[in-house]
User: What shape does this take?
Amino acid sequence: MNSTHLLRPHHGSHKTLWFGLLGTILVLVGSILFAYAQTQKKVAEKMNPTKQMPVDAELKKQLTKDQYHVTRECGTETPFHNAYWDNHRAGIYVDLITGEPLFSSLDKFDSGTGWPSFTKPIAPGNVVEKRDSSHGMERTEVRGKMSDSHLGHVFDDGPAPTGERFCVNSASLRFVPVEKLKEEGYGQYLSLFQPPQGQQQQAQVP
Assistant: This one.
């Protein structure tokens, strides 16, 4: 007489498998959330207006000799031999030390001076103007509001619409291209580089 053996499912094995899968999912979700939190923290640190300025000793270690000379000693870099005088990429220029947004490539123009030149700051309150009587000249110096770094000078011989020329040292700036604005915490400035809605619709019509 043949006997038939019924195979019973091993409920314990199934439970172990499910618990293993659940544990793996929780670890993955936790890792993603942690990475996101770290990214947001870095962004917040970049854009934090109350972020404490590094002390002078730290800046001397962090900056190159030219960067320190320009930003902290009101120096001037060599024209036509600096990072951004002929940079034509789209993006924004931020304070080298604090990351505060200062100028936009949309307002940059070729002044023929050998230094980056802009018709206006990206936000008026981010740049401070001060009287400068050094070297036997009367000029208007421009400085970063948060960092109090020397940026350059502003003159009244610029093109329309402002008639002003913000002549700035590359050594006081860091350029953030359009494709990295969101990644580096400057996503709110992306709209500056997008055409108005009406122009977008016209571009889509053949």
